[in-house]
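queue> pop job 88
queue> type: inverse folding (structure -> sequence)
queue> payload:
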């Protein structure tokens, strides 16, 4: 499943598959760029676990719910395809370039706390100085964001892969034109 709207994710899949046999099912859960018919881009907010969501829902005005992702997920089969996948077998979540912010909280909670989710492996970004030396990374920030999607914190600590077993996300250098 990809949250990115572009085909860049397939490039990363190829990079990863060159080193390991990784089965990937491409599900553009939030739509794909240029697809205006059956898989339109899904912008919106997806944190129905937030206390404010219940307040908005109880206002009785559907206009306020229009940009919640759950209602957009019902426009095609992507969400149901995702549920079928997570119910079907064990899987590992690879996080590549996603901040794991709260805008996808409900969906990520469904995936992360699922019994078939064996682990969550974040690929992190390394910060470099002018001399191309690594001066830091965002691993901790990513796992802090991931933690917010868990109701069961013990489960979170069991599933997130520790940094020593993770690696920086390879940076693709595009040619300048």
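queue> result:
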């Amino acid at each position: 499943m990809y949250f990115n709207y572009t085909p860049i994710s397939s490039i990363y899949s190829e990079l990863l598959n060159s080193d390991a046999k990784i089965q990937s099912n491409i599900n553009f859960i939030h739509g794909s760029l240029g697809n205006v018919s059956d898989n339109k881009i899904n912008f919106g907010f997806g944190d129905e676990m937030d206390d404010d969501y219940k307040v908005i829902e109880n206002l009785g005005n559907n206009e306020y719910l229009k940009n919640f992702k759950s209602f957009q997920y019902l426009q095609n089969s992507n969400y149901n395809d995702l549920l079928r996948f997570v119910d079907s077998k064990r899987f590992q979540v690879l996080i590549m370039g996603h901040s794991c912010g709260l805008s996808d909280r409900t969906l990520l909670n469904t995936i992360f706390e699922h019994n078939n989710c064996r682990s969550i492996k974040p690929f992190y970004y390394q910060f470099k100085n002018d001399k191309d030396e690594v001066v830091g990374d965002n691993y901790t920030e990513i796992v802090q964001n991931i933690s917010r999607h868990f109701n069961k914190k013990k489960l979170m600590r069991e599933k997130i892969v520790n940094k020593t077993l993770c690696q920086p996300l390879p940076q693709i250098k595009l040619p300048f034109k």
